[in-house]
Design a protein that fits this description.
Chain lengths: 305, 305, 305, 305
């Protein structure tokens, strides 16, 4: 099977490598073309532009760094849109919001001027958004969780590739649902991080060892990889940003906004969100989201208010 | 090794059985003496009263249903206190509050009348509180988590027995710390249950399948046994009380009170506690604590306000 | 002094009447022209279109029902924009969001197509936004509070008219600040309404008369017109929508969003917002915002979840 | 009319003075007897002990500093209890909790030893608790608000005196209700102080003048004496303790506990309470309760966590 692959950052490189190892023929493109060489050594071909990759391959996967990059690769000169069409599929696995996915998927209309921009579907192409859960290590190990939505036929055709990239893929329905599912998961994760922080702090202040609390938690009904991984680092005040606090807070804000649209009252998430905001106001936004523990403890980062 | 065992309810029976199976000689007592027969069939001896058990055994373990029963067995006529003394150890594994453990451990003074009641330590005995985490199944499998505190020497002597009863025991320091550790764990658990409920509800209202959310959660960094066990039941509106909501709310209230004593601000736990209170006010207190999901959904039990 | 007046709803009619009574020459326009007759009886002249009013008057005040009406009157055919220009001032006193005021004030650009729309300032006109606090009665009595922002020179010229319409006007700086000030005030008001509801409910449940609580409150340091006005109606379950709950919740959401932009953690407002959301989810959105009391009591509107 | 008056602190002195000025014959007692001289100059008689005052007067009012003083004056040697009896009334206007009032009113039983202490009612006396709302100035001006409960006949007999001391008195039913009413009022007050703090902080961070916000608030539906009095001081960082933050937080805790007993969910008060706790943890407990503004701003007192 031949696939195109756009974007060879940490995630994209690992994913393209896995496809090559499982016998896929892969045509890669990256904004900095030099980054393609490592993949060429593993058997990849290089495409000069996103358009060239799409022209060559029936299926093209993208793994870009953010919504802006995801839009550029499609709409800019020599972009995906120039070659997408009947019988071709485009699969964006970048982590983007629902609105970005919608723009890539469909034409959109701006203001009263009705400036129509054609997008993948108008050109006749099929589109699937497929953001993933998991970072570098799961990407390398083919253990991502894939949250796909959009064109069901294209999804079905991609399942073998998804099986190489991840341990499990879900088809979630209409475009935007992949992004929404990530928000819901991250919202729960954010509340749990606050709960853990409160528990560690309470233990400490009432004469129990926070490390022992972690040990007890790890043996019980609420044991989970996040507590196990982050807990000990938090006790050491170590917050290397695997997932920056400002992004976690943004996701909680967006999840709460989704709740607002749908009239879902979520007081626990709202309380957690305000603590993350306090953390941001104290200058902790670029640390790992577990740095919310510093706010619960009452210390306060760089202290500016 | 010879041990006494007071209390043969669901938990106690399973625990005493495990001790017998591992070669301990066990003298059992239960308020309803008939319940002892099953254990006798496995090799146990019967003690007529708590005092008789203590007289015979160097170590006596108790597993009673609540604080009131835990106090009765010690202070009532023919109780533990009548025979406890130098060289004897008493280990209460019941789930009780810190105040109850303190009463059993030490003399206490009531009012200005200075009415002194002698307790285990005044009599010369050693005392360990050792509440457990885990219910019927872990008790049968010897997979409890034991949260011990009090007399360190007695704890050390009991470790072989604890190894039979549980997968891990912790020594947490002074009397009361076992109870406090349980409160902290349950507080985190209560917030997490609220977070899960909010996530399930948000998923449902914004067009995602709550069951798929459970599946996605189970593959990620916050996967945990509680979500896996309770989640599907919640989606079916099934709330068999493994841990009644009113007890969960009581534990959150006590944990928040502990936070108040120690000036620990815990807004997420406080928000979760208010939702559990709302659940209680709607008549859901006797259901499993996962019934808080009904409040988040907006339905409302029997509806009386 | 000659002023134009666009919009003769409940508020606009009362305000234009006050201007006439204080000797202003007023040229009125209303979408339903028939509504102008009452004002003509008091000495007003009628303008055929917004453009005609602006052509005739140096200053034109608008009091429209919502953002959409406020935009139409400016940008549609025969709108304000056709005649606004050097030496003319436009004062929009409608309650609109900051974004709407900005659109009326300045050109704006949509998307990459750079479709530029000219607005009041590009045409050479001066613009002041001036939303008011207060409803029908204060409008009739000239007792509004006016929250003005934008062109300071125009504001200064309008002060005599503002003195007729209100008991006090404030100049708050750049466009958008009037809307922001309203949001902050309404946010505080929303939290206070929740506080009152919780207090009334607690009083009732613990054996105190809620009516007596209102009486006690009215004699103390937190006595305020809202408690005095709404409290007794709430106890009777009467929620005639002076300010609909769904609008209050929208304002709280926007105020929280403003807090998010500026990294201000506001846990009390966030908690109050979630209760208003719960009220919306229970079908209470069209009642007065004091209907949040029903949620606190635990009853639940029409009960759909 | 002859009344006894126990306790001549700031409040008591002002109140006894008012009674004298309105023609009451007053027999005063104070722990530091020297403090009585000022009242003697106004016509008061001095009693040597609380018992002596009660022996002489049909009605005795007490205004003590705290629960401990309130209990001492009754139960200690030469205390009220020695002379109280049929036909005599005791009115405690100190601010105490419901439990303290109950102890003064009725016998109570401690522990299993059933140590019975006789109190006012057992001796045949009548008892009214009557805590007040208002501090020094209202006490001097006879403008207190009196929250009475207990013996209705005694209350009715005291109304003329209450009319001298306060602008309004309420009879609230059974003993404890006066204390509960104060808790409910203070809970609402605490939430409102948080709301104001959040609003001031949001205004400041989004480019509005906090002082202008205070001015706008003071003209609207939520204008109240507390905002007017405390607001400007808060903007100057001035927190002279009219009502210490730690007492406000204690009252919120007790109000929430009352809500817990009665299954009243109060998320806004709970959120406010956690912010007050954070303030306590930052060393602000002895400042005025308006110092919670410092926590909302993100500064943090002496910074110890």
């Amino acid at each position: 099977m031949e696939v195109g692959f756009l974007g060879l950052g940490i995630m994209g490189k690992a994913m393209a490598t896995n496809l090559l190892r499982h016998g896929y023929r892969v045509t890669v493109w990256n904004r900095t073309i030099a980054k393609c060489q490592e993949l060429v050594a593993l058997g990849a071909t290089v495409g000069e532009t996103p358009a060239a990759v799409v022209a060559k391959c029936r299926y093209t996967i993208a793994m870009l760094s953010d919504p802006s990059a995801a839009l550029s690769v499609v709409f800019d000169k020599d972009g995906v849109l120039e070659q997408i069409g009947d019988g071709k599929g485009y699969i964006d696995m970048s982590t983007v919001d629902a609105a970005t996915s919608s723009k890539i998927s469909e034409s959109y209309v701006m203001g009263k001027g009705r400036m129509i921009v054609e997008a993948v579907k108008q050109k006749g192409g099929a589109f699937v958004e497929a953001p993933v859960s998991g970072s570098k290590k799961p990407a390398e190990d083919g253990q991502l969780v894939i949250l796909a939505a959009g064109d069901k036929t294209l999804y079905d055709e991609m399942v073998p590739a998804f099986d190489v990239l991840g341990k499990k893929s879900f088809f979630l329905g209409e475009i935007g649902n992949g992004a929404k599912m990530k928000l819901v998961v991250n919202m729960i994760m954010g509340s749990m991080m606050n709960s853990l922080s409160e528990g560690l702090c309470l233990a400490d202040k009432c004469g129990l060892s926070p490390q022992t609390l972690l040990d007890v938690l790890d043996l019980g009904a609420i044991a989970n990889p996040m507590f196990k991984l982050k807990g000990p680092a938090m006790l050491q005040g170590s917050y290397n940003p695997a997932f920056p606090l400002k992004h976690q807070q943004k996701d909680m804000r967006l999840a709460l906004a989704l709740g607002d649209e749908n009239a879902v009252s979520m007081p626990v998430s709202a309380a957690a969100n305000e603590v993350f905001k306090k953390a941001r106001s104290l200058g902790l936004g670029d640390l790992d989201f577990s740095a919310v523990y510093e706010v619960v403890k009452g210390a306060g980062g760089s202290g500016q208010a």
